[in-house]
Amino acid sequence: MSSLFQPFEPGGKPGSRRGRRWRRINRVPLRMVLPNMVTLLALCSGLTAVRLALEGRLELAMMAILLAAFLDALDGRLARMLKGTSRFGAELDSLTDFVNFGVAPALILYQSSLAELDNLGWIAALLYAICAGLRLARFNAALDAEGPAPDPLFFVGVPAPAGALLALLPMYFALLGGRWLTELPLLVAAYIVVIGLLMVSSLPTFSGKKIGARLPSDSVLPLMVATAAFIALLVAFTWQFLIAMAFLYIAMLPVGVWYARQNAKRSNAERSVEPLSDAPDE
Hints:
Four Helix Bundle (Hemerythrin (Met), subunit A); 2% strand; globular
C-alpha cells in the first residue's frame, strides 16, 4: 500500500548516494527536518503578524515580524551546521520569506498608513510585495544556474529580511510617537517602493554568511559580550535601536558597492597574473 503522503524531497537527484540511501531505508535523518521546522515556526510568526496588524495591535505585529526575522536567520545557519541543507528546505524558506518579508510588511503598512491613499496606497504595497517575490524567485533560479559560483561575501540586491526591516522604518517612528506614518502616507508609499526596487536591483550588499564561521580563540569572549550588549539594547530600546540599525544599513550600501568593486579588481588582477607565472623561461 502506498503512503498517504509524498516523501520528503520527492524525486531527489537521480543517482545520488543520499537519494539511494533514503529510498533503501525509507528514513530521513532528523537533522534534515529540524531546520524546516524552524522555518515553519517563522511562517507562523509572519502570519500571526498579519492577524495582529488587522486587529490594530501594531506593536505586537512588529514583534512577530522581528521573531520571524530571527528564526529566518537561525534556520539557515542550523541547516549548514547540521549539514541538513536540502532543495525542499530552500524552496520552503523562499516561500516563507515571501510571506514574512513581502506580504506581511506590505499589509501592515497598508493597514496602518497606506489605506488613506486608497488605490495609490494599495499599488505601493503591491509593488513592494511583488519586488520581494521577484527577488526570491531570482535567488531560487540562481541556485540552478550553471557558471561561476557567486561571491559568498555579497548578496545581489538587498535581501528580503533586511528589506522588510527597512520598509518598516516608518512603523518604528510611529511606535515612538512620530507622525510620519499617518501624516505623510505619500512619502511612506514612495519609500517602500524604493526599498522594493533595491531588493530586485543588482546592488552588491554584504551577506554576512562568512561571519562567525571561524573565530580566533581570543575573540570569543569579546564576541559574547558584544552579543549580550546587542540583545540588551534591542530589548531595552527596541524601536530606537532598529531605527539606528536601519540607517546604518542604508549608510553601508555605498560601502558595499565600493568594496565589491575593489574585490572584483583584485580578482581580475590575480587572474591576469596567473598565466604569466606558468610561462616558460626564455
